[in-house]
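From the shared-data thread, chain only:
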Amino acid sequence: MSDSSLPKLEVGDIIQALDGVCNSQVDTAGSTKPLLECVVSGVLRGAVVMLGTEGSEARDTGEYVALMKKLIASDIVLLAIGYPVSVAADAGLLDPKAKELCGDGLKRVCELAQIPPVLPLGGLENIGNVVTIAQALSGDSGLAVHQLPVVGCDAAGVSKQAVELGNTFVGLGVDTFIGILPYEGSLEDVVAASGLVDGENAKHTVSADLEELGDAIIADIEKKRSAIAI
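Structure, as tokens:
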């Protein structure tokens, strides 16, 4: 499936869907505030932006799907761009019925908003939509981007494009998790050779074990929640 043919939701589509979980007495329709309320209350723990670049097929699809299922079972909503969109589609995770694989909180949000637990944002040319969403969440919450319980993930490996995207995310203040393929030598040498650079307010976490990477993602989101006392 080419990037241009990937399923895609616009930012406005996502915000409109979130109105389905909006409490009209306290929430503002047409904004990210209903999502923020779900996160603050703990119904959702946070969000992961999952990226995938050309060559991602080198990573076993089953590992990808297992990582996605691990995260949604932990009440973490996924925003997918590029290769993970097709992986999620093939695994049925773009179907609202996939709510049955979610934790109770995310399942409830999926039911109310009539959305799947993995939201497709199309191909990598739409990466700017992630910035738009992050800025909207920051503006509506009054928190800096790096304080939000939102992280990035490229589970495929350290490609040139993955490094560029990872460094961009970290530069925005979004902790980014990279799943590399099995390697020889030390992990420090692999990271040093990759060109990944930590930012002032965010860092990269790299692992060849996607189960371990999933645990690190969940721990990072919980750490961010604790830091802002939610």
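Strands lie at 46-52, 76-82, 118-120, 150-154, 176-179, 204-207.
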